[in-house]
Amino acid sequence: MSSITVHEMMQLLTRLCEVWGMTAGIKQTKRVAVTAGLGALFGGMLGGPVGIAVGASLGGLLGTKNTGEFKPIRLIIREMPPEKQEQLCKIAFRVIRDMEWPNAAQLMNLIMEDVAIQEQLVGVVMDYLANELKAEIKFDKTKP
User: Fold this and answer.
1) Under a CB-based contact definition with an 8 Å cutoff, are residues 24 and 136 in contact?
2) Contact 70, 25 (CB under 8 A)
């Protein structure tokens, strides 16, 4: 078994996410809450108790709509701070630790030929982004 650097693992994971067509939307709950609160405030000022409910609903809906931007996970991974990349690398390495490979390029080839390993690594990325960044994951393509 050969070792793999954090940079090489991030390249592998970003390539895999690209092949699987993975995108993520980062939830910004504070922005939604502030928008809903402002909607309730203005709704209450304009329409009383009914205006509060309508304003909060419209504000929350508007806040949710503005935070729903999805971007490729490969970009999210590249933008993560080094310590987060290292955490993700350690978790992903557990999936491949028993595999034999002479170099990172060969490892990529082995993974691209094994859908079960791909699914495990994709699961690692999904779990990490959902837990650490509160991201919602979407697949733009069907799996390979």
Assistant:
1) yes
2) yes
User: CB of 10 within 8 A of CB of 89?
Assistant: yes
What's the predicted TM-score (pTM) here?
Answer: 0.69
C-alpha span between 72 and 5 (Å, rounded): 22
| Residue 1 belongs to some domain of the structure | no
More confident residue, 5 or 45: 5
| Antiparallel, parallel or unpaired: β 135-139 and 70-72 | unpaired
For residues 21 and 33, membership in a common domain is answered with no
**CA gap 121, 108 in Å, rounded:** 12
State yes or no: pLDDT of 30 exceeds 70: no
Q: Please check whether residues 39 and 107 belong to one and the same domain.
A: no
What whole-number percentage of the chain has pLDDT above 90?
49
Q: What angle do CA 114, 132, 10 make, to 5 degrees?
A: 40
Length of the chain: 144
Give which of 76, 36, 79, 74 is closest to 58, Cα–Cα.
Answer: 36
Residue 75 is part of which domain span? Answer: 6-25+70-139
